[in-house]
Write a structure and sequence with these properties.
Blueprint: E1 2-10, E2 17-21, H1 22-27, E3 35-40, E4 43-52, E5 58-61, H2 63-69, E6 75-82, E7 86-90, E8 92-96, H3 111-121, E9 126-130, E10 135-136, E11 141-147, E12 153-159, E13 163-166, H4 171-174, H5 177-188, E14 193-194, H6 201-208, E15 221-223, H7 227-237, E16 239-244, E17 254-259, E18 263-270, E19 273-279, H8 282-293, E20 300-304, E21 310-311, E22 314-324, E23 330-339, E24 354-356, H9 358-366, H10 370-391, E25 398-405, E26 411-417, H11 431-448
Parallel strand pairs: 1-5, 2-4, 3-7, 8-9, 8-13, 13-14
Antiparallel strand pairs: 1-6, 2-5, 3-4, 6-7, 10-11, 11-12, 15-20, 16-17, 16-20, 17-18, 18-19, 21-22, 22-23, 22-25, 23-24, 25-26
Helix pairs in contact: 3-11, 9-10
Length: about 450
Amino acid sequence: MSLTLCNLHFTKRPEKIIYLSNALIKNFELSGKKNIHIRLGKNRIQVNLKPMKKSGKHIYLSNGVRSAIKVPTTGGILVKNVEGDEVHLGPLIGILSDGPPSATKPFGSRTGFVKQLLREGSQKSYTFGFTPRDIDWSSDTINGYFLNSSGSFVRKRVPLPDVIYNRLPSRRSDFSYSTNQLRDRFERKNIPFFNWSFFNKSDIYKLLEDDQTVNGYVPESHLNPSMELINEMLEKHQIVYYKPSSGSLGQGIYRLTYLPSRGYFCRYRKAGGNVLLRFKTFKSLTRMLKAKVGSESHDYVAQQGIRLIEIDRCPIDFRFHMHKNGNNKWVVVGIGAKKAGKGSITTHIKNGGSLMTPEQALSKTFGSRSAEVLQKTKDVAIKLAEAIEFHHKHVLGEIGFDLGIDQEEHVWMFEANAKPGRSIFRHPQLRVEGKASVEHIVDHCLYLSQFHQRENL
């Protein structure tokens, strides 16, 4: 395979002809060939090849070719030569999300993020956004959203892409019957699709429980625990978190504490405030939990509580934003340290938590050793990402970890998220990492589409 960056132009001729400059004819070893195949995304046609005396690396597509394979624009584009007679333009990268129908905000609150991806992707590929309703399976095309030179959306119909980055916004849409069908259809067409879907907490714990390389970083966790098991965990650990397996943003979480001399305590969040209840017996605590959780308790996880490092007597944990890079290796791209609000059971910003850089947080707790502790935690995060990818049956390219460090400096993984939020990148000192995150997403798309090597113009 030969890969190079070319200047692509259109001509108005109706025939299916492609003109290649002599440099490209030589580069792609096409001397003497009269017919080749040209491809964009999943569209592939046979065309007549004409050499052209023009310096540099240039491709001219006739109107007949442009219309047949639906090439969206001219300009600098990567081109690879496959098996001697196929010229593949692209890659064609699709960003899948959703939102209420709108010309200016078709992806709802994620529209700004999708635009960042399109701006970054347009420097290296054909990148567009789309929703499930934009797919026409009868013609295997998508009416995608591209950005024009002024930064506004323009609609262009293109073939099914070479790779898809999945940012469907909700668990409901992600696990719906129609989305499962959509993913299966892309898979049958051999289109790499990442990330497959949201994780369930219990699924991730189960994936790692027998992996000796990382299971020591996962707190004791049980899906659908009996009240008797929760009682045993409280006697063993004193603190237990009782939380929905498919929850997010700290919703529906109960922090249970057992103090032998004082009884049982339960903290949770209600109507924007923190609630603390005390019970003399475990039986009375059980009655309250059953009343609050009700029939939903079949999808709850009980997890060992950890006494984390603190600042001003408020626990600290860390959001690690992980990406696959252009060489298919896991790297730590961004880290936000989250300090819990007073009386809060989680560090979520929406629940009163505050955000700082990991250096700021660790210097307050470990002083001169903060860099050493941070590097150790980064190493653990990479091990965890590699382990989840090894055991997971679908393609992964991005993971968000909620990690904690206890008072003995042991690292713990509380949650893994396949579609992590991006709130940490709003911190003024993490904006560079936010840009790097977008770059890594595009670079991994290039890798998955096998367009990850490039030459200069």
